[in-house]
């Protein structure tokens, strides 16, 4: 379908087309389309723009990632289709790796996403190897399969479009978890240290810029950002923004 | 994927599986999965239950359908996959037909949905014929393609999971439009005479029962239901219910 770039919801429509293409080519799972739709609804309720609470979360996320000894970016089918390039740019800036991690797991899908990332930058993606795989405890889905040298040994994980189970398990393992989730009511939103309630396509470029801005700041400066950050407050601001949008319509 | 029937969200998970199956078999469009996801998000915000405002809308819908001279049920890929049987039961009760009408139109999909309905009841579905097709004005999508003997000449249309464009056009053509839409902010919700803000799988059995209850009432009784019904009020109640849910979390 041809999308008029002047359409008020062009970004959303273009993303839909990308995902449908992703399903046809075995990169996105069909259930990923449903998850995308849920996100669309929340994005609509957030007026489809990056709100102040998301900007504060992005700043805290940048500080966490810069302070981490071994940060890693987790990527799934939807995030790869929607913004693989942004992942590569952020991974380069942080000098870290990207690991494919799927809820609707299949080896073929993992390989396809790894190839997609490799075609953009051969260095940044952690290619899965059987002997490197470990199973994280307390995760019911195949999200539990991770690589020792990747999420396994990491101390800070960026988890966009995550499921609640794994987010909770990663936090329990003492990892710092930065989630990108449009639903401020989700378990992921609740359990992550930092929850960016925003559309992944809008917030990743902002996260990149924030990391760049903070990269040369000293440790104390970054710690101060983290110490003054309150994720519960951010979630509440997101909930209030949705209410305000609904109130406007009343 | 096997779904535990005791899972708190079993209905939602079963429906997801049905839709994914529908895509694989060419009945549902991939974009239908995204639309389903949007609905899921709103259903979640409505606590996944039929709320009092939806019950009032269902009653008004039953009255409109019973008062109509030529009611018709419009069905698309998602609604066919999720509740074809309920459409048949309601069409039988009203002695009316079901017409397939698709946003992501393809002849093959129309045929497949017609076959699915025919296999359940050979009488109820209006089989599309080239010479019967007309194009409704002011509808940009292929939703404009309808049959003269179906939606074309109808005076009351049940449009579940509708797009705003067509809803508006049908209302403009003086038809009574009953929409089922989980998003109380949508154009469909706004323009329909009656908007049932509820999950289609929950509200169709209730609509069936309501039609059955009202079937033997006289015309004045039904008119009284319609006259005392205020769709704007219903929409506002739906918006307030979502706000209340968000407030609970704050």
From TrEMBL, chains A, B:
Alphabetically list the UniProt keywords: ATP-binding, Coenzyme A biosynthesis, Ligase, Nucleotide-binding
Keyword Metal-binding (UniProt): no
Name under which the protein is recorded = Phosphopantothenate/pantothenate synthetase
Q: Which domain of life is it from?
A: Bacteria
Q: Which residues form a coiled coil?
A: none
Instruction: Fetch the InterPro entries from UniProt.
Output: PPS/PS, PPS/PS_sf
GO molecular function terms attached to this record: ATP binding; ligase activity
Organism, per UniProt?
Answer: Candidatus Gottesmanbacteria bacterium RIFCSPHIGHO2_02_FULL_39_14
A GO biological process this protein is involved in?
coenzyme A biosynthetic process
């Amino acid at each position: 379908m041809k999308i008029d770039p002047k359409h008020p919801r062009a970004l959303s429509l273009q993303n839909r087309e990308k995902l449908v293409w992703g399903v046809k080519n075995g990169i996105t799972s069909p259930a990923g389309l449903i998850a995308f739709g849920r996100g669309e609804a929340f994005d609509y309720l957030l007026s489809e723009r990056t709100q102040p609470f998301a900007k504060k979360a992005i700043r805290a996320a940048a500080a966490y990632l810069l302070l981490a000894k071994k940060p890693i970016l987790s990527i799934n089918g939807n995030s790869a289709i929607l913004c693989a390039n942004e992942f590569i740019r952020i991974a380069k800036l942080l000098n870290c790796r990207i690991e494919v991690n799927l809820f609707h797991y299949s080896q073929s899908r993992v390989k396809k996403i790894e190839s997609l990332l490799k075609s953009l930058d051969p260095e940044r993606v952690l290619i899965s190897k059987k002997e490197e795989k470990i199973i994280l405890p307390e995760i019911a889905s195949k999200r539990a399969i991770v690589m020792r040298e990747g999420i396994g040994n990491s101390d800070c994980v960026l988890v966009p479009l995550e499921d609640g189970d794994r987010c909770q398990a990663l936090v329990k393992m003492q990892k710092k978890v930065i989630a990108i989730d449009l639903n401020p009511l989700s378990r992921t939103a609740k359990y992550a240290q930092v929850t960016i309630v925003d559309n992944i396509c809008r917030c990743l470029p902002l996260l990149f810029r924030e990391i760049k801005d903070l990269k040369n700041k000293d440790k104390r400066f970054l710690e101060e950002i983290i110490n003054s950050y309150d994720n519960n407050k951010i979630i509440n601001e997101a909930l209030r923004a949705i209410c305000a949008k609904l109130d406007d319509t009343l």
